[in-house]
Amino acid sequence: MLQTPSxxxxxxxxxxxxxxxxxxxxxxALRDEFPEVTISKIRFLESEGLIExxxxxxxxxxxxxxxxxxxxxxxxxxxDHYLPxxxxxxxLDAMERGEAVQLPLVGxxxxxxxxxxxxxxxxxxxxxxxxxxxxxxxxxxxxxxxxYGLIAPLEDGAYEAEAVTVVALVAELxxxxxxxxxxxxxKAAADREAGLVDQVVxxxxxxxxxxxxxxxxxxxxxxxxxxxxxxxxxxxxALGVSLP
Length: 244
Fold this sequence. Notes:
Elements: H1 23-30, H2 39-47, E1 54-55, E2 61-62, H3 65-81, H4 85-96, E3 125-126, H5 128-135, H6 139-147, E4 159-160, H7 162-174, H8 184-205, H9 210-239
Antiparallel strand pairs: 1-2, 3-4
Helix pairs in contact: 5-7, 8-9
């Protein structure tokens, strides 16, 4: 269960008297359970109508404890059930109406020990319109990003759910003058890291034993998490900075 911060020294705009929190405070509260969540992600979920924080007269977002709990619920449904936002919104609306609802079986279902489930769709998909909304760009810009290899549609024209995070981060970097064409070097590095992981798990994927082949997915996730942590640590070391 997510523990909502109660305000105090250093809480800044999270008003202690009202119990409302700034978006930065909410981000810190969520990161223990959702280390990959970003401010852009929270803003995107708000733009999709999944959360509705209050606004100060100057336009700053203020989140209540209920907002944070709802946000955490949305993130869990994305992480554990691989549900598209439309399905999550319908589920939350039904809960608010007091209806007894079950989460639909869409894509993979995450289990406590991360054992892969029976064969079926392996990724949730998002549409082009959702990507455009996440990055607040037009179709021409998205095509440009695709030309740089930063994002690629699947065979049916949809995108993997992780593409939402990619376009939101590309857009956020653009605010600092880092253009998509500059990010090709990051994409190339990511491809090399992915190739290394694939090389390690390839023997498991080719194994005759179905359980061993199924174990390849869990091993891939474990290695991916380690490479991401190492990459982050190397970047921080190179820049000489300390980040959360």
